[in-house]
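As promised in the previous annual report, we have extended the structural survey to additional targets. Below is the entry for DUF1840 domain-containing protein.
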Amino acid sequence: MLVTFKCHAAPDVMMMDNLAQYLLGIIGKRLSARGVITHDELDAAITKLEAAIATDKKEGAEHQGHFHEGEDDRAHHELPVGLAQRAFPFLDMLRAARKEQNDIVWGL
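The corresponding structure token record, generated without further manual editing, is:
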């Protein structure tokens, strides 16, 4: 299923429910049929998501040389998409909402 996040400060952000559940979990929310991230919660949410992205990048850099070791069908430079790329539209929305003091809502 797709989840659509809406906010007056940014374009809608759509993602699969498993990614939405993961990202919301990082910021301390649960995916339900409907939900809201209030403008008062945005600072903490952004901080938590940025920290998770930094951790993911650090772990990715540590494993970069070993990722496709022994796999002949993949180039050694080919890396999976990281959290930074997957979370960017959502993080961008969080930042825009904070700037304009808007809430973010979603529904399935």
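Residues 42-63 form the longest helix (22 residues). The chain is about 45% helix and 20% strand. These points will be discussed at the next consortium meeting with the crystallography subgroup.
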